[in-house]
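Regression report. Comparing outputs from two consecutive submissions.

Submission 1:
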Amino acid sequence: MAIKFTPVSENGLVFHSNKYWKVTPGKAPERDGNVMVTANPPSIHGTFKSVTRTGEGTSALLTPLESGSLLITDFIISGEKQVGSTVELRFTDDTNTETLFLANQVDAPAQIAHAFQGRVQGWRDARLDIITAGTADATVLVCYVKLIDSVPYAEWNALR
C-alpha cells in the first residue's frame, strides 16, 4: 500500500521529488518512480564568469556582495605558451592576498580544469583577480556562488 505525504521542513519549506522511470528486475519500466530531490547552494545559486587576458595586467574576475564572500566551485584555465610569462588566480582585498593557482609558462602553457570537493571560500570582501605577467595569453572560467556570510581575513586564515 502506498502512503502519500508531503515532507515539510521546520521553517515550512516543502521538499520536492521528481518522477523517474522505476525499474524492477524482471518487470517492464514504470513511469511512477519518485526520487527525493536534494541540492546544495552551488547547484541552485551557482553561476560562472570568464575572462581572457592577452598581455601583462590584472583583471578583477569576481567581486563579492558587500561584506560577503565568494565560494569557488570549479575553474578552468587555458593559455598559450609564452616563454617567461605567468598566470595567477588569487583572492585579494588589497591588503591581504592568497594565491589559488600560479603557472610559470616556460616549457608548457597553463592548462588546468578543477572541481573542488572542499569549501574554497574567500574572506569578507575578497575579490578574485587574474594576474598575467610577461606576454601571457590566458582564459579563465570560474564557477562560483556569492555568499552573504563571511569572516574577516584574520579569522578566515586561522580556520584553514
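Submission 2:
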Amino acid sequence: MEPLTDWDVYRQASLDMLRGLNPMHTPLNYLPPWMSLLTAPVAILPRWVGYGVIALIMLMVSIIAVKRLGGDIWAILLLCTTPFLLHNILWGSLEWVPLTGMLLPPAVGLVAISAKPQSGGGTVLYYLVQVIRKKLSFKVLIPFGVVGVLGLLVYGYPFSMGNPPADVVRSASYAVFPWGVPFGLALIAWAVKREDVWLAYAASPLLAPYFTSHTLIGPFLVLVTRSKRWAVVAWIVAWVYAFATIGRV
C-alpha cells in the first residue's frame, strides 16, 4: 500500500535510519538525514499517535510564530483556518521544522531551515548575505557546516540523494519557477536592506522549482501579522482555489 500522508513517508524514513539504512533511499523521501533523525522519537510511536503529535506540533509552532511576530487572536484564527495550515496538519507535513528554525538563534535555526529549501531558502540566502556584510558572525554557519560534513561522511555526496518521481513533482507543485526568481531575489534584497529575516523567509517559495500548498504557510504567516486586510483577501482566495481544485495534492 502506498503512503497515505507525508508523515507516512517521513516516518518510514526515520525507521529506515534506525535500522541503519540511508533514509534518503526511502521511496518519496527527499529530505536530508538530519530530518529523519529529528523525527525518529515520534516515528517509533504507533502510526496514528505519531501523526497526532506531528499535527499538534505544527499547530503549536504556528501559533507561537504568530505571537512572536506580534499577531493578535484574529491573526491566529485566520492562520488556523487557512487551507495552508489545515493542509499541513492533514498531511502530516514537516513545515514546522523550518518554521521552528526561524524562532531559534541563526546558528541553530539555519540547520532546521535549510532542511526544506522551498520553505527556508530565502532565509539561508539572507543569513549568507548578512555574514558577508559582517552583520552576522561567520560562526553562525558552523553548525550548518558540521551537519553537512557529517552527512557527507556517513551517506556520501550528496547524501546519495533520492528525488521524488517527476510525475509527482509535476502534479503536486505550485511553483512559478523560474519566473518567480527575480521577484524572490528582489524581496530578499529588500529584506536585507530592512534587516527583516521574516520577509526573506516569505520569499523562499518564489525561488523554488518545487513546492506545495504546505509551503505557503510561511508567506501567509508573515502576511497575517502585517496586514489583516490583505490576509483576509488571501484567505478567501485560498479557500476558493482549494474548493476549485479539490483532489489536487
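Expected: both submissions complete independently.
Actual: both completed, but the second showed a warning that disappeared on reload.
Relevant detail on submission 2: Residues 6-244 form one domain.
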